[in-house]
Amino acid sequence: MSDLDQDLQKDFSDILGTSPSEQDYENAYKTASNGGSPDQVRRDIAFSDASTAKVNDLYSQVLGRGSDPDGLTAQQNAMASGQTLHDIRWSMAHSAEEIGKLNDLYHIELGRSIDTSGNQSYQDAIGNGRSLNDSIHGIAHSPEARTQQIDPFLRNNVGNISGDLEQSAATVLNYVSQAVMSIRDYSQDQIQSLATNYQNTFALSGSEGSYDKLVQNNWISWVGLAATLAISMTPPGEAVAVGEILVSGGEEILGATLDNEISSAAIFETKGASSEPQYALYSSQIEKFENLNPKNSGTTVVLDDGASLTQNYSTKYQKRAMDFTGANEQSVENIFRNLTCIKGPLDPYLKIDSDIGKVYTVKTEIGNITYRTVSGSGKDWTIDLPTMSNGVSRLKFSK
Q1: Contact 363, 278 (CB under 8 A)
Q2: What is the pLDDT of residues 192-224, one digit of tens each?
Q3: What pTM value is reported for the model?
Q4: Measured between alpha carbons, how far is 88 from 122 in angstroms, rounded to an integer?
Q5: How far apart are alpha carbons 220 and 214 in whole angstroms?
Q6: To 10 degrees, what angle do helices 219-232 and 163-182 make?
Q7: Which among 268, 293, 319 is the end of a domain?
Q8: Which SS3 state, helix, strand or coil, does residue 215 take?
Q9: What percentage of the chain carries pLDDT values higher than 70?
Q10: Cα(first)–Cα(last) distance of the chain, in Å?
Q11: Is residue 297 within 8 Å of 280, Cβ to Cβ?
């Protein structure tokens, strides 16, 4: 075997992980006959279409994004100068960008910063062939995620913990985290467009409406859900971004997911309904809430039936909601009736009746208004309504 043959086999193994074909040998000998050096042969391989595809694939697997022109050229130059495809992968896996993404994943799924040993373990695993999405899946299905994030969520919001529910919640956490990472650099307009499309196409994957059925069935839906979460977690008046999700933790991500999915499901179920239109007016009932600052805490609201509510500062994953204590079921139902002008039974407006609660939705001249006895934030009752002038579109009540 000639030196050129040996060099060519090594170059192909280093850069493409394959062996050269007969055509590749012919091309190499042609380059050599025209005065090209072995370095030129290697450089041609490093900048070939096959090499470009390999490097692009590394960016996707390791960093969860496409390559940028400067980065692609730098990696190909490195391989032309002697580095292998594995060297490039190892370098990406131990880059500052990768460290930042792994830390973000820990915050999203575990609610804490990554520790030194965890960081090293995941970087080495990715450097040796594991993908970033594999790591996202591993964290979401880890014992820590189950005991510290998933089980508390199920206990506080679903009222039941089972192996099936834990698996469903881990699946949701996994895919939401992947989707969040994929849109982290999107513009406000891009996020809003994804969320709007999600609201317009949402459908329950099962008929029971229980949490284990609220699982998306395609990637576009997961990305749309992530965009919807970004909007719900952004304070009114501020630019929508995914920053709030990146510091939330699995329990709050699951709570926000459940809240938004149930709300979206109710909206979806109402579209095309033939119920008689109800005409909600901006009465004193709306004004009681529209005039409040969602960032305040301690404000007292006296309802028409005499019930007194106390406003609490909204949780960090419900920035477009207002939270009140001191409520009871009848007082919240009365608010819903006043907003929708319903006088008779609520049964005709029941859209979801599940093992975790009921959802009523009414079409009005200002949009859909929903009253539900199930929530992902641990509250007893929730009313979703068209966005008010103070940026709030969700009222949450507890005893």
Answers
A1: yes
A2: 888 888 766 654 443 344 444 445 567 888 888
A3: 0.69
A4: 16
A5: 15
A6: 80
A7: 268
A8: coil
A9: 80
A10: 83
A11: no
Residue positions counted in the chain? 399
Instruction: Evaluate whether residue 73 is within a structural domain.
Output: yes
What letter represents residue 205's amino acid? S
- Give the number of domains in the chain: 3
73, 154: one domain: no
Rounded Cα gap, residues 104 and 113, in angstroms: 8
Q: How far apart are CA 74 and CA 72, in angstroms?
A: 5
Stretch (H or E) spanning 368: strand 367-372
Q: Is residue 42 part of a domain?
A: yes
The tokens describing 77, both together, are 């130059």
Q: How far apart are CA 371 and CA 332, in angstroms?
A: 8
Residue ranges of the chain with per-residue pLDDT less than 70:
1, 157-159, 199-217, 235-248, 258-285, 314-319, 354-356, 374-379
Q: Strands 321-325, 394-398: parallel, antiparallel or unpaired by DSSP? A: parallel
- Residue 174 CA to residue 190 CA, distance in Å, equals 22
Dist CA 197 CA 207 (whole Å): 22
From 289, 270, 257, 276, select the one nearest 360 (Cα to Cα): 270
Tokens found for residue 273: 């309904």
What pairs with residue 364 in β-bridges?
Answer: 278, 367
Task: Kindly state the tokens that stand for 365.
Answer: 């001249």
